[in-house]
Amino acid sequence: MTGLAILIPAALALGLLGLGAFFWALRNGQFDDPDGSAARILIDEEDI
Amino acid sequence: MSAQPRPDVAPLRTVLAVPGMHCAGCMSKVERGLSTLPGVSGARVNLSARTVTVAHGDRVEERDLVDALAVLGFEAQPRRDELAPNLSAVKPLLAPFAVAGFAAMNVMLLSVSIWSGADGATRSLFHWISAAIAIPAVAYAGRPFFASAWRVLRHGRTNMDVPISIGVLIATGLSFYETAVGGEHAWFDGVLMLLTFLLAGRVLDAMMRDKARAGVDALIRQAAQGATVVAADGTLAWRKADELAAGMVMRVAAGERLAADGEIVAGQSRFDQSLLTGESAPIALHRGDAALAGTLNLDAPVDVRVSHAGQDTTLAEIARLMEASTQSRSRYVRIADRASRLYAPAVHTLAAVSVIGWLIAGASLYEALVIGVAVLIITCPCALGLAVPVAQVVASGALMRAGLMVKDGSALERLATIDRALLDKTGTLTLGRLTPDPAALDAVPPTEAGIALALASHSRHPLSRALAGALAARGVRAASLWGVEERPGEGVFAHHDDGAVALRRPEQATGTAVVLDIDGAPARLIVCSDRLRPDAAEALAGLRALGVECSILSGDNIAAVAEVARETGLTAQASATPADKQAAIARLRASGHHVLMVGDGLNDGPALAAADASIAPGTASDVGLQASDLVFVQDSLIALPRAVRASRATMRIVRQNFALAILYNIFAVPLAIAGLVTPLIAALAMSISSLIVVGNSLRLARIAR
């Protein structure tokens, strides 16, 4: 049972980490242009 | 990858709509092409919105950017509302969805251990942790539902969000009480799962609307965003449409649209008024005649003294008519809300009856309340909340891939009921643009065609551009010319080898045509006319097969309408003003018909807004695009029967989903009333019914084929 004291906070922390990462992505504008991001990987980056 | 804009280098930003971009190649072409311009420090494409944001210095004009894109082969328009924030329906829902999902997963993890037999202090601890996660999560993620429920309750109405909110709040409250007294069952997992599923439905619904709206926004052109104004001392200056005022003199070149109403003070030309009146034949206007905003100058440059600008033009009159007619549409109640009008009272009565029944049977108040909550949770419209949005999202996605954009979720519901269709002529049944007679082009030998293409490509006149487009599409190569000269109102004159060649207007202007004059060869008359859209006959037959009777409702003159009516075999009403069109629709609706309006012009705006459902082609005017429910981007009219068929299939699936949800309730509610439902059973029942509804809706993915 003492394992729970570590496991539950660990599970919650990992979950919160994911949630935090999602919010960061949302604020950072990563969901502004889903179609463009999908297409952008196909552009060859020459020296611009 | 990290092409972040650098505001310190480039103080100015311009947003241009570029509807023609659709792949990675287009993106890199546009971004690199614009970045190499002098004064431009960066360009970033947003493919979802079909826009490009250009960061540039103050010496770069909007028109330079548009011209640069035209050289790259992309048509572009500046966005008037570039500074307004892009209102997305998805964004405010993403955060609640993420929170609900996170909380649901963690609480479910704890619940599974409770269901596997944890008890005593462990169960109590788990319940407390669940409560600590769930209560803030419900308060945050439930806000979209609570706000919407409160909005309608204040006006004494109800919608789907009312039973959802009541169920969620009561279940959360009771679970907290259970936790506090160390009870056996807490329902936090069920509540959060419910919110997650429902938010998933809402997010999908919003995504679909955002996508369609972005597509339509990109199509919206600024027909005439300004005019070249001649000052008293003869200098010319470009003024934006909202800077024009009565008394100014605009110089309108051939091929330009008028930005304001006015009176011609110098020159004479022919004008295409089709966008405004539906009249397809150009009308000749001379000095002293009135010309209307939105009309296209065809032949020669003219000077026009502005009489009405901005909100005083004929356009504003049409806008007022539209405002009046949109009210009938807003009274439409969506099917999900109609269902909840029956559903919510039934469910709430059932829960109350169970509580009273158990009290009479001798249970304690606490036991009776737990059973009441179980009934509320098990009947909470999880599947119902998904039934409509998921079906509509899948159908809209399928339609979008087929070139049909659904602007509004309720559009498919309204479209499914129609039994009568009214079609505008110019631009709707026909392509709305002049195309040279194919037979006349066939008769032109290749060398002469090459000369014609070279001549036509030197002019921006609408007829020249139509001719150049048609010849280029036939694979004609332009011949080399020298001494090219365009004389306004006359044509393009040049020399090829040693002979004089010309593309000019015919001596007597009968209809719309150009004459190709080549030294040593007979003059050729190439007639240009507006043609029926491809597949028109097939599309109309398709609509008839669906039980939709079609007729033409046009603002054009009787002769022109009669010709199209003969070709298509439809009855027709000609010379209809915008108010006439609106009245025709009101008459049909009063006699019990559900009317579909298909139109494109400004003059169709009021009719599009008044009809039960409306469709516009992608080439329609801004007003047409904004007033319509669906927009089809291809030339073919086959989109019409396809849209009607898809909408009816969608409603069939929605009704099946409702039936499935009711079937589920028939099994689950007696169990809940009998007091046999535990949180475990509730969680299972909810997930299974939701999955079934989603699975059934996915069958719509192939609907638009």
- Beta-strand content estimate of chain B: 15-25%
Give me the side-by-side strand order of the main sheet of chain B.
14-26-25-24-15-22-23
Give a count of the beta strands of chain A, DSSP E runs of length 2 or more: 0
The interface involving the most residues is between: A-B, 25 and 27 residues
The residue fraction in helices of chain B comes out at 40-55%
The number of distinct helices of chain B, counting runs of at least 4 residues, comes to 24
Secondary structure tally, helices of chain A: 2
Low-confidence regions of chain A: none
User: What Rg of chain A, in angstroms, do the CA atoms define?
Assistant: 19 Å
Strand content of chain A: under 5%
N- and C-termini, Cα separation of chain B: 37 Å
**Structural class label of chain B:** alpha+beta
| Biggest sheet features of chain A | none
Radius of gyration of chain B from CA coordinates? 31 Å
How would you explain this protein's 3D organization?
The complex is a heterodimer of chains A (48) and B (705). Chain A is elongated. Chain A has one domain. Chain A has 48 residues and is an all-alpha fold. The termini of chain A are far apart. Chain A has two helices and no strands. Chain B has four domains: 12-78, Alpha-Beta Plaits (2-Layer Sandwich), CATH 3.30.70; 91-216 and 333-391 and 649-702, no CATH class; 226-316, Distorted Sandwich (Calcium-transporting ATPase, cytoplasmic transduction domain A), CATH 2.70.150.10; 433-530, Calcium-transporting ATPase, cytoplasmic domain N (3-Layer(aba) Sandwich), CATH 3.40.1110. Helices cover 51% and strands 18% of the residues of chain B. Chain B has 24 helices and 26 strands. In chain B, the strands form five sheets. Chain B has a seven-stranded mixed beta sheet, with helices on both faces. A six-stranded antiparallel beta sheet of chain B has the order 6-5-7-13-8-11, with no helix packed on it. In chain B, strands 16-21-20-19-18-17 form a six-stranded antiparallel beta sheet. In chain B, α3 packs antiparallel against α7 (188-219) and α13 packs across α23. The longest helix of chain B has 35 residues, at 639-673. Chain B is elongated. The interface between A and B is medium-sized, with 25 and 27 residues.
